[in-house]
Structures are given as C-alpha cells and as structure tokens.
Amino acid sequence: MLQAFSILKSSVVSFRRSTESCVFYLHYRGTFLLLMFACLLISTRQFAGDKIQCLASHYADVSESLLNAYCWAASTYSVSSAYFKEAGIEVPHPGVGGSEDFSEYTYRNYYQYVHLVLFFQSLLFYFPHLIWKSTDHDYLNLFYDTLKGCKAENSKEGKTIESPLDEASSFIADRWGTHLGYGLLYIACEVMSTVNLMMQSYLLDIFLNGEFLGLGYYYISHYNAERLKDPIRLFPIVTNCYFKKFGASGFVDTIDALCVLPINALNVKIFLFIWVWFSLLMGLSFCSLLHFFLAWFFPWYRVSYLKLKTIIFPSQVDHEFYSRAAVSGNFGDWFVLSCIKSEIDSLEFSRLMEGLWNKLSNLGPETKEP
C-alpha cells in the first residue's frame, strides 16, 4: 500500500511556476494530489480488503462468495421510508426494510466506479496547467537567460552590476506593449480551471444522484439527529440485495440478503472533504479572477496592493518607477512585471524598473504594435 502512495512523491516536491498564481497552483497541484490520493486510498481498500459482505438466511442454498459477487456487481438498494423508523425495533438498520411502494427503493452501485471517477477528475484538473505550460513561450526564461548571461560576461570583464540590469530593461522595453496576448492567455487558463471546477462539482452531483452539492449542508443540519447522523442515505453502510435463483421445485426463489459495505465508511469522509475543498477553492478562484479583471480594467488597482503593503510594512526599496511602468502599460505588461517581481531581489527589481522607466520615457508617444 505504501508503494502505491510513493508515486505521488515527485508531484509533491514540484514547485509553482513564476507565471502562475497560488490559486492556479492549488487547482492543478493541490486538487490533483487530493483526488489522486483519494483514488489510491479507495483502490487499495477496495481491492485489498472486503468490498462487500452479505448475509442471507441459513435456508438460502447459495454460497457466500457468489452472493457477495452478485450484490457488488448488480446493485444494492435502500428504502427511503425505513430511514424514519426506529433502528433496532422497527427496522434492523436505517434504510433497511421492505415496502410495497417501489418508488421508495433507491438502488446504488456508484461505489464500483468511485476510484475511476476520482482518477479522471484529477486528470481534468491538471489539464489547464498542461495547456498553459505548452503555450507559454518561455518569455520569462529568455529574460532570465539574458540577465544571467550579462552578469556572467560582466563578472569576467570586471564591470558593474548595472550593465546586466540595463540590458534586461532594454529587453523588456523593446517588447513593451506586446504582452497583452500573453496575459490574456493566462487568464483564459485560470477561467478554464474555474469552469472545470464548476463542471466537476456538477458531474459529481449527477454521479451521486443529485446529493453532492448539498452534502455539507445536509451533514451539518443532521449532525445531531439520532436517525440521520452522517449522510447515510448517500453512503449507506448496511443495505439490501435481492438474489433470484431456481429452487428445488423448479420455481424462482428470491433471497433477500443483508449487505455491509465497509468501503462507504471511507467514501463518506472522502467526499465530505472534497466538498469542503471544492467550496473553498471555488471562493478563492472567483477572488483570483476578480483580482485579474480589476487589474485589466483599472490600471490604478495594479499598484494598490503594493502601496498598501508599503504603508503597513515600510521598506527602503523605492517602488515609484515600478508603479509608473505598471500603470502606463497594458495588462500584459503588468502581468510580466509582476511575474519578474516575484522572482528577483527587491533591490535589483527596483533598479530594473528605474532603467525600464527611463527607456520608456525616451520612447515618447510611440507605442508598440501588439
């Protein structure tokens, strides 16, 4: 079992790319690991432990292994009216009983496919990252290579540190105004991640018969109830199963078995955690998209966070030139500058922005073609 979880080690130690926000990282890394971990956990429990154990009357002439295999493959069912009867007196377990109204019968066989659903969901959460990674034209890598290359050459020639930063600022100034498509492409990937989260929540709701979206509210509202403690309707531990066979007289005999699903004790905890995680991630995703859209439409917003941070945490680093450059450029220019800002030293970035602003000021009213 430990060997199965060791394959996630390489994914845990990977780092976030400089062009990706923390929320985007949570989509393709945090959620991917969560769903993959749940998939492996359920798979090892399902294939290494007892998937189902069914109990039939001692008069039933059928083997236990045959009954277990049939009820697992076919389906088990619960009776809705049996949830409101006294367990141990009127019914043996919540949801276990009989009824003449067949509309009260709820058949469930989703537990056979939970590990597959979680596996494919984890791949879909990783898909937007693959798109961004494949379409990212390594602009920042070219910038960093230019900066490092200039530093290496100047260190051999004994020049000052200003020359590499001057060369790097020229690299940005020559491409100023051409980054809008680069920034919009990243926003498209963030939107894709958010839409994927909404779609996966909806598909899980369909998979679980319309009970996933309200799972957390249902659990909280019934937590203190004796008969509905835990969402046992969705994840029943004890269920019924019908098995039909020919009897000794040649007529069809019906065996009503009582089945225990140990896997549902794990399913209920996994899906409750997924519901909480999806809810938190949904809120963070909308906040992240709002942040980028505000930065797109309102240039003053791009430096508002930095100004607020400077007021709370006074710093000797001058961000005046960065503020001017971020406001004067388009959204793509600000996006590139914010990515660079998170990767290099604050003092070097301040000097880089000073050189960039001087070059942009010398350009005059001319603008670059996007």
Automatic annotation (TrEMBL):
<keyword id="KW-0813">Transport</keyword>
<keyword id="KW-0406">Ion transport</keyword>
<keyword id="KW-0965">Cell junction</keyword>
<dbReference type="Pfam" id="PF00876">
    <property type="entry name" value="Innexin"/>
</dbReference>
<comment type="similarity">
    <text>Belongs to the pannexin family.</text>
</comment>
<protein>
    <recommendedName>
        <fullName>Innexin</fullName>
    </recommendedName>
</protein>
<feature type="transmembrane region" description="Helical">
    <location>
        <begin position="21"/>
        <end position="43"/>
    </location>
</feature>
<feature type="transmembrane region" description="Helical">
    <location>
        <begin position="202"/>
        <end position="220"/>
    </location>
</feature>
<keyword id="KW-1003">Cell membrane</keyword>
<dbReference type="GO" id="GO:0005243">
    <property type="term" value="F:gap junction channel activity"/>
</dbReference>
<keyword id="KW-1133">Transmembrane helix</keyword>
<feature type="transmembrane region" description="Helical">
    <location>
        <begin position="270"/>
        <end position="298"/>
    </location>
</feature>
<comment type="function">
    <text>Structural component of the gap junctions.</text>
</comment>
<dbReference type="InterPro" id="IPR000990">
    <property type="entry name" value="Innexin"/>
</dbReference>
<keyword id="KW-0472">Membrane</keyword>
<keyword id="KW-0407">Ion channel</keyword>
<keyword id="KW-0812">Transmembrane</keyword>
<dbReference type="GO" id="GO:0005921">
    <property type="term" value="C:gap junction"/>
</dbReference>
<keyword id="KW-0303">Gap junction</keyword>
<dbReference type="GO" id="GO:0034220">
    <property type="term" value="P:monoatomic ion transmembrane transport"/>
</dbReference>
<feature type="transmembrane region" description="Helical">
    <location>
        <begin position="110"/>
        <end position="127"/>
    </location>
</feature>
<dbReference type="GO" id="GO:0005886">
    <property type="term" value="C:plasma membrane"/>
</dbReference>
